[in-house]
């Protein structure tokens, strides 16, 4: 049973104010695409370059991981697991190799696109990019995650 986009968002362990996915735009067995608008009043802007705030790189990485590893991993697991089995696992980010090439400012909407490199035994590796509205790539790389059994 494949989860719907809405069900995937409900299963994400990250929820507002720390969920950086507004909408899943596309998803299938090979890729996911989602969007997020960074709100003007996000708490991390207050002290990050006061007077000229930019989105911290670690938040951009988190945004890519939530879409490319967590949401995508939940979807892929839903293809082979029951809801009862899904409830026993938590999808977590494990590794990243990322290049930053642009700045994301408060109020900007970004799109995260991730393509599966491999998925086996609940381990997922993707090529991922975070793109601004003007099609400028703000960061890209390879990130990984896995489903871990909750205790």
Search tags:
single chain, 151 residues, alpha+beta, six-stranded antiparallel sheet, 6 strands
Major sheet description = 6 strands, antiparallel
Q: What class, by secondary structure content? A: alpha+beta
Q: From the coordinates shown, what is the CATH architecture?
A: Roll
Count of the separate structural domains: 1
Stretches where pLDDT is under 50 for at least 5 consecutive residues are: none
How many helical stretches? 3
- Helix-strand topology string: HEEHHEEEE
Mean of all residue-level pLDDT scores? 95
Ends: how far apart? 25 Å
Tell me the number of strands: 6
Based on Cα principal axes, name the global outline: globular
Trace the largest sheet across and list its strands: 1-2-4-5-6-3
Kindly report the CATH topology: Thiol Ester Dehydrase, Chain A
Q: What is the C-alpha radius of gyration, as a whole number of Å?
A: 15 Å
So, the CATH homologous superfamily? Answer: Hotdog Thioesterase
Helical content (DSSP H or I, runs of 4+): 10-25%
β-sheet strand percentage = 35-45%
Highest-level CATH class: Alpha Beta
Tell me what you see in this structure.
This protein is of the alpha+beta class. It has one domain (5-149): Hotdog Thioesterase (Thiol Ester Dehydrase, Chain A, Roll), CATH 3.10.129. It is built from 3 helices and 6 strands. The protein has helices at 5-11, 57-78, 83-86; strands at residues 23-27, 31-37, 89-100, 109-120, 123-132, 137-149. The protein has a 6-stranded antiparallel β-sheet. Strand 5 and strand 6 (137-149) form a beta hairpin. Helix 1 (5-11) crosses helix 2 (57-78). The longest helix is centred in the middle third of the chain and has 22 residues, at 57-78. The mean pLDDT is 95.
């Amino acid at each position: 049973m494949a989860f719907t986009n809405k069900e995937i968002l409900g299963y994400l362990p990250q929820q507002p104010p720390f969920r950086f996915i507004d909408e899943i735009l596309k998803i299938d067995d090979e890729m996911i695409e989602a969007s997020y608008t960074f709100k003007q009043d996000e708490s991390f802007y207050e002290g990050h370059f006061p007077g000229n705030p930019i989105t911290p790189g670690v938040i951009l990485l988190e945004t890519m991981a939530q879409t490319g590893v967590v949401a995508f991993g939940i979807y892929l697991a839903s293809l082979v697991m029951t809801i009862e089995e899904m409830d026993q696992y938590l999808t977590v980010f494990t590794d990243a190799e990322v290049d930053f090439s642009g700045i994301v400012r408060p109020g900007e909407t970004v799109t995260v696109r991730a393509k599966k490199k491999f998925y086996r035994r609940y381990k997922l590796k993707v090529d991922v990019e975070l793109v601004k509205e003007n099609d400028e790539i703000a960061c890209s790389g390879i990130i990984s995650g896995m489903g871990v059994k909750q205790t």
